[in-house]
């Protein structure tokens, strides 16, 4: 008889106990049942490459054949880090290099130090959520499952019914309670703004409706959004702060994301030339 048949599901299956998730990823906070699953997740989604010093005598001439390369010695640049397995050479832009600074833009005396981050709450504080369970319930229903409001209310009713014998209640009284709690989160707030636009050109006879209609555009301040991301310690070591170039052992260029491409490097050159800080030995 097939394993999934109704008979097999009835015989001896009622006593199964749900095994709760236990292990949390420190980067994205995803939960795993066992260490092997957590390890595989980290290696798949959070592994990062680091730089490798470019040997000055062997490779510098080839690297300098590309546009926008500065005439500064490679081995004097603190941004050239060593990759132990030697897979890639990692060259960070020598002027726009993401040197650490404080909130006022003043460079730190020790380039290896880090500015003080925003004050973090204790790990047991889930404000404005009453508990970790309430937070993870909201995160799952609203962020991951994206369940409809009607379905959330039905789920909460079933949840409440299952807890009646224990005199307990589900994490939220209703979907409205959940949404109000989410809206009260004080961290990383970037308020919405809106404005109205309409066509302002010459109107032809019998203009189409879109030419006379008024449209509302809603947006968030991108500078506020960027500031919130940069100040969030959850994103530490998860993004690059400067343009870079990567090469394999045969000096073949490797592209991984926006900051590894030519456009980002050229923008850095233009910006530092405007500021009078960049020295280039070839036109671009």
From TrEMBL:
<keyword id="KW-0862">Zinc</keyword>
<dbReference type="GO" id="GO:0008270">
    <property type="term" value="F:zinc ion binding"/>
</dbReference>
<protein>
    <recommendedName>
        <fullName>C2H2-type domain-containing protein</fullName>
    </recommendedName>
</protein>
<keyword id="KW-0479">Metal-binding</keyword>
<dbReference type="InterPro" id="IPR041078">
    <property type="entry name" value="Plavaka"/>
</dbReference>
<dbReference type="InterPro" id="IPR013087">
    <property type="entry name" value="Znf_C2H2_type"/>
</dbReference>
<feature type="domain" description="C2H2-type">
    <location>
        <begin position="23"/>
        <end position="47"/>
    </location>
</feature>
<dbReference type="Pfam" id="PF18759">
    <property type="entry name" value="Plavaka"/>
</dbReference>
<keyword id="KW-0863">Zinc-finger</keyword>
């Amino acid at each position: 008889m097939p394993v999934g048949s109704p008979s097999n599901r009835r015989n001896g299956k009622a006593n199964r106990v749900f095994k709760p998730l236990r292990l949390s990823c420190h980067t994205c906070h995803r939960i795993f049942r066992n260490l092997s699953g957590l390890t595989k997740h980290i290696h798949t989604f959070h592994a990062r490459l680091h730089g490798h010093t470019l040997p000055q005598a062997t490779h510098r001439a080839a690297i300098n054949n590309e546009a926008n390369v500065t005439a500064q010695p490679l081995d004097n640049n603190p941004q050239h880090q060593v990759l132990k397995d030697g897979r890639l050479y990692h060259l960070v832009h020598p002027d726009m290099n993401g040197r650490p600074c404080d909130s006022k833009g003043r460079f730190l005396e020790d380039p290896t130090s880090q500015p003080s981050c925003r004050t973090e709450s204790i790990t047991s504080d889930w404000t404005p959520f009453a508990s970790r369970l309430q937070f993870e319930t909201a995160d799952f229903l609203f962020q991951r499952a994206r369940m409809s409001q009607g379905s959330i209310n039905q789920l909460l009713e079933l949840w409440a019914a299952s807890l009646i014998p224990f005199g307990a209640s589900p994490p939220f009284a209703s979907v409205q309670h959940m949404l109000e709690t989410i809206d009260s989160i004080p961290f990383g707030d970037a308020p919405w703004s809106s404005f109205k636009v309409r066509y302002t050109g010459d109107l032809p006879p019998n203009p189409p409706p879109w030419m006379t209609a008024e449209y509302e555009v809603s947006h968030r301040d991108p500078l506020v959004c960027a500031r919130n991301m940069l100040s969030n310690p959850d994103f530490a070591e998860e993004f690059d702060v400067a343009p870079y170039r990567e090469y394999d052992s045969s000096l073949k260029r490797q592209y991984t994301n926006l900051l590894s491409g030519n456009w980002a490097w050229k923008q850095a050159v233009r910006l530092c030339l405007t500021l009078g800080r960049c020295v280039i030995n070839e036109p671009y």
